[in-house]
Design brief:
The protein is of the alpha/beta class and about 350 residues long. It has nine helices and 15 strands. Bound molecules: flavin-adenine dinucleotide. One of its GO terms (biological process) is D-amino acid catabolic process.
Length: about 350
């Protein structure tokens, strides 16, 4: 429960899953009342400049195979398992779900080997179980996430249980996040805006467009994905949604078009019906087509501390953006690294959390 008034010692810019996960890690360590989240868009909003509500959303092998991505995946899996295990998927909107992933070629061996070490119920499928054209496949228990509802859950939990303050504001420059002299550290979790926001302007960032469909298909209970050379097809049951599924999709590098296209809808319906027996054997009602822009970055996500002088004082920015197609599965691991990067500053702020010692 909230015991202290909020202040602005810690500012998080961005209220997508990446910023919310940083707030959660800090709040779980007792810093909730020192955090202000500043964001142009908040959970409950929809906008082309706010990716998180458009995520599918699941844990999958789609992430990179570099050491950071492997570690963030494992930390994220463990975090999401906890949210699914708390016996309240209707609150967290995270659920354990059986999953199958199929590859037509280029199996990311390093990733599969690492995943096999921690995923629940992991199994490599036998060659006689593979559909035509598939070279390799695995099954395991994944986590599926109702993305728009999950970020609303985090938003309410952070405000009500930990006293985190949220302010709706579009910052013209990252240094405007230091508007209060209290502010010692700013976490930059601005997603796609990192490419253009003055004070960041990271030209390695680019959007990766994906069109998806929201379909009511209560017969679908299994998460299934097929990774092809030039396509990505998936069927993701959406937890706590009265039988809705997300069908996808596309990975269009450098495309920032927020429109949706009927020929893409037709292609998704054809590919997903070929892929999922559960889908084609049950009733289907198309509810919506949506397009979202994954905040991608050449070389992977940036989690890095930088110093900045504000009014003669040296302060810290911790950059945390570029999660691409994996912000929900990797965001918690990224947040742990981002909080670690802030290190000593947070130790100093701990003193503010002990008002009784000043009485
Ligand atoms: C179709 C699709 C499917 C996906 N499927 C999955 C999946 O299955 N699993 C998975 O893990 N991920 C998935 N993703 C990826 C996931 O959605 C992203 O990685 C994630 O949402 C990125 O979160 P973010 O917080 O970095 O950015 P965003 O959600 O875009 O949030 C950015 C925040 O920064 C704020 N902001 C930006 N600039 C400013 C400014 N100047 N001032 C104030 N505030 C500012 C915005 O208002 C917003 O609050 C998918 C994405 C798409 C599009």
């Amino acid at each position: 429960m909230v015991t202290l008034p909020s202040n602005q010692s810690i500012v998080i810019v961005g209220a997508g899953i990446v910023g919310l996960d940083v707030a959660l890690v800090l709040a779980e360590r007792g810093y909730g009342s020192l955090i202000t989240v500043v964001a142009e868009h908040l959970p409950g909003d929809t906008s082309q400049t706010y990716t998180s509500p458009y995520a599918g959303c699941n844990f999958s092998a789609i992430s990179g195979s570099d050491p950071n991505a492997l570690r963030w995946d494992q930390l994220g899996y463990s975090h999401l398992c906890k949210l699914a295990s708390q016996g309240e998927p209707h609150r967290t909107f995270v659920q354990r779900t059986p999953s199958i992933e199929l590859w037509d070629e280029d199996v990311p061996e390093e990733k599969i080997k690492h995943m096999s070490e921690y995923l629940e119920d992991f199994r490599v499928l036998e060659s006689d179980e593979l559909p035509q054209g598939v070279k390799f496949a695995v099954s395991f228990t994944t986590l599926t996430i109702n993305a728009p509802k999950h970020i609303e859950y985090l938003y309410q939990r952070l405000k009500n249980d930990y006293g985190v303050r949220f302010v709706r504001q579009a910052l013209p420059h990252l240094r405007n996040a230091f508007a209060s002299p209290d502010t010692q550290v700013v976490f930059n979790c601005t997603g796609n805006a990192a490419r253009t926001l003055p004070g960041v302007e990271d030209k390695r960032c680019y959007p990766t467009r994906g069109q998806v469909l929201l379909v009511r298909a209560p017969s679908v209970q299994t998460n299934i994905m097929r990774h092809g050379r030039a396509y990505e097809t998936y069927v993701i049951p959406r937890p706590q949604s009265n039988g809705n599924v997300i069908l996808g999709g596309y990975m269009q590098k450098g495309n920032s078009d927020g429109a949706t296209y009927s020929y893409e809808t037709e292609s998704i319906l054809r590919r997903t019906n070929e892929l999922s027996q559960e889908l084609r054997q049950g009733e289907q009602e198309l509810l919506a087509a949506m397009s979202g822009l994954r905040p991608s970055r050449e070389g992977g996500a940036r989690v890095q501390r930088e110093s900045i002088v504000i009014g003669g004082e040296t302060k810290a920015i911790v950059h945390n953006y570029g999660a691409g197609g994996t912000g929900f599965q990797g965001g918690y691991g990224m947040a742990l690294d981002a909080v670690q990067a802030a290190g000593g500053i947070l130790q100093g702020l701990k003193l503010q959390l002990q008002p009784s010692s000043r009485l």
